[in-house]
Amino acid sequence: MGRPSRFSPEVRERAIRLVMEQRPAHASEWAALQAVATKLGTTAETLRKWVRQAERDTGQRPGLTTSERERLAALERENRELKRTNAILKTASAYFAQAALDRRSK
Q1: Degrees (nearest 5) of the Cα angle 79, 9, 68?
Q2: Which residues are within 8 A (CB) of 47 and not within 5 positions of it... i.e. 6 or more apart?
Q3: What is the count of structural domains for the chain?
Q4: One domain, residues 43 and 16
């Protein structure tokens, strides 16, 4: 899991809204991002990532939405845990199978 953001969800939403409103007033989207980022005390690249994710969440841009990303991460965690459990069970069954073979020969 990633580290917690120092910006609240409300600040992110406000920043995204400001960028959307400022786009027409600037020569490029990057200029709008830089202008808003300096006002909020973040970097333009961080703000760009927030805007791109918001665009994916609203369907304006292709890609995984936030909920889909969270679901995928949960499934990957579950998959890792199941693989780990399977490996433990295989090792344990091999150990007990060997112990059963050793007991029979005596």
Answers
A1: 30
A2: 15, 19, 33, 36, 37, 40
A3: 2
A4: yes
Tokens of 47: 């703000």
| Token code pair at residue 70 | 């969270």
What lies within 8 Å, CB to CB, of 63 at 6+ separation is 56
Looking at the fold, whether 56 and 93 belong to one and the same domain comes out as no
pLDDT (tens digit, 9 = 90+) per residue, 71-83?
A: 999 999 999 999 9
Q: How many residues appear in the chain?
A: 106
Query: How far apart, in whole angstroms, are the C-alpha atoms of residue 15 and residue 10?
Result: 9
* SS3 of residue 61 by DSSP: coil
User: Nearest Cα to 16, choosing from 28, 27, 29, 5?
Assistant: 29
Domain range for 94 is 66-106
Please tell me the pTM assigned to this model.
Answer: 0.70
Quickly tell me which residue has 């007033």 as its tokens.
Answer: 25
